[in-house]
Amino acid sequence: MGFYQLPEENGKRSxxxxxxxxLSMDDMETFITNPGRAGEDAPVYLTWQTNxxxxxxxxxxMVAGSRKTKAPGILTLARVPGADAEGNTLTxxxxxxxxxIRPEGGWLAATxxxxxxxxxxxxxxxxxxxxxxxxxxxxxxxxxxxxxVKGILEQLYxxxxxxxxxxxxxxKYNYQRLLALIDDNHDGYYSEQEYLQAVHNVSCRDxxxxxxxxxxxxxxxxxxxPLWKTYLDTLTTDAPLWKTYLEAFLDKMTWMKAVSEKGVxxxxxxxxxxxxxxxxxxxxxxxxxxxxxKVPKGQLTFDxxxxxxxxxxxxxxxxxxxxxxSGVTIGRGYDxxxxxxxxxxxxxxxxxxxxxxxxxxxxxxxxLDAQSRFNSASExxxxxxxxRKQQYDMFMISYQRLEDDVKRIxxxxxxxxxxxxxxxxxxxxxxxxxxxxxxxxLIDLRYRGDYTPHARSLxxxxxxxxxxxxxxxxxxxxxxxxxxxxxxxNQRISxxxx
Length: 498
Prior knowledge:
- The structure is a single chain.
- This protein is an alpha+beta fold.
- The protein has four domains: 45-116; 124-275, no CATH class; 286-386, no CATH class; 411-498, no CATH class.
- Helix content is 41%, strand content 13%.
- The protein contains 21 helices and 15 strands.
- The strands form six sheets. The protein has a three-stranded antiparallel sheet, with no helix packed on it. Strands 7-8-9 form a three-stranded antiparallel sheet, with no helix packed on it. The chain has a three-stranded mixed sheet with strand order 11-12-13, with helices on one face.
- Strand 14 (329-330) and strand 15 (334-335) form a beta hairpin.
- Helix 6 packs antiparallel against helix 7 (240-253), helix 11 packs antiparallel against helix 12 and helix 15 packs across helix 18.
- It is globular and about 75 Å long.
- One of its GO terms (molecular function) is lysozyme activity.
- This is Pesticin C-terminal domain-containing protein.
- Keywords: Antimicrobial, Bacteriolytic enzyme.
């Protein structure tokens, strides 16, 4: 770990960086295929492909519909609810006949999914890229980057081709255009920033973080090596002070060649990967892992409904009463005042018997009754802490119920008739036309009780039409949400604008 500082034209850029070095005798390209089949007896992930038939859970079991998965995906197996052949929800999913794929809004049959070991990195989207550049100056604004940059753009282009969100539909054409420019080898002045923005496109970062690239290390090659010298020579007249600084910097940075010459053969071209994504994919997840603080959908609501700081009054893994008309709450918004099946929910999640009994006794209480119930809790109950996984499971149950309620409202014929631009739209079409980001905001509004008829009169038409700008304007106008706490108001705007 060290302090890194880089001068710029109008100042400097500084940050602390952590370097993680992994030494292995394994061949990387073979390693990611899991040749030893490690972990196959206890798979950690569940994957599916595009166009897998989706099922809906009806009163009489699973019902085959016309919908299919829009894109391939990966979920942590332990987080995926399962159901038996009759559609009954299971407490575990080991022998499930169906799996609930929340990002797709439906269920997949066991025959449509694959259970994958955490060591089968290639099946989890990791790819190796061996395209060593001729210079460290990868994007110079003159010569087209037919190097590791092209390899990365090709990977991101594959992701963009699978994109289903209409708001991101142009991504694939941009990648296609940039790759065509590289292939045509039309050297000349071009925008370096355009390539940088394409590489660091937020909507494709999951694939970017899974690219394992082999290229020369700046810690191996010195200022006199061709990979640096070609670039440094151009600075002799253009930026002599910058050249002097870089040469001094490189003299202090290079060390790998000296170590290799002493018998520890590190090699000039190591593999480079995102350390946290690479390592976390192979980690076992226990009930207290930090990964349980990330949810497949509803992150806006999850983050807004508490924190994980045990000294904070908003620590969510103990019982609390948020005030107002709320009920006793535990986890991220599991309000006992709004529950009717608390005993079944808490049993499924595995809440300890004493705490479960007390929570079930709080079911249906709200406002002052809930406050009185909370104040009467014993120290043992107040200090009982659920695990992060239990909190995750609890949130997914309550979030799914509120999502179903928002879906019910959006599919009501009267709501469609008043606000849908196409009043002849079917309920399914009306719901599917709403962009995912808008759906997440609507569910957060419903979570806090803000998805009122008045709110729908302001924004529902923009939700149906997918008008992101107009919806955002309504969301960010403070006078529309005077009853919403300032912090929640700002959290919604921040999420929507990100």
